[in-house]
Fold this protein.
Amino acid sequence: MPRKSSACCAWCEVSTWDHAEASLKQALEAASQPYTINAGDGAFYGPKLDFDVTDAIGRQWQCATIQLDYQMPQRFDLKYVGADNAEHRPVVIHRAIFGSFERFIAILIEHYAGAFPLWLAPVQAAVLPIADRHADYAATVQARLEAAGLKAELDARQEKINYKIREAQLQKIPYMLVVGDKEAAEGTVAVRSRSAGDLGARGLEEFVAQALREIAAKGDPAAGLAAAS
């Protein structure tokens, strides 16, 4: 928790600052949250809480902040009428849950090295027809995935299947669903995991159900399709 900066303005009363700082400390202690005090790092208009996150290689980044501001309402002469029918000075809470949204997304990308878990991946499954004659069934598979709320892309390019798999792997898509004659005839998909490799054939509905369970578990490795194999 940053303490008062030496650049505090003349109109910023020390007693007001101390009261705001004490209020933040009381809130943290009431919530049983550990904290450290970073002297001299407060914003000029009031003390704040900084929430740091640690990325995959151990670096710390400031994300969320909550700032308790008694000064701006005074500067702008803000007032409200309370339940007692008297005028009161409000307190402003500046709140940035993610900090800079762009910074937050950048930290996520770097933390996962682009290999997002299934629940977070912008494309969760790539449907890969082996040949042109499998395109209709592949489109049916994509439509079923999307109807279940999964984000799926269809790669109907006239390319070799190994090339399509490699492209999807480089894009770090969690699952690749290969479909050919056998899959179209049996209503199945040949599942390949970004991390675990070939998982074999699954019924389409079975894959959908398992993928939804993995998404609901949000990070539980026991819920993944590879664990269910």
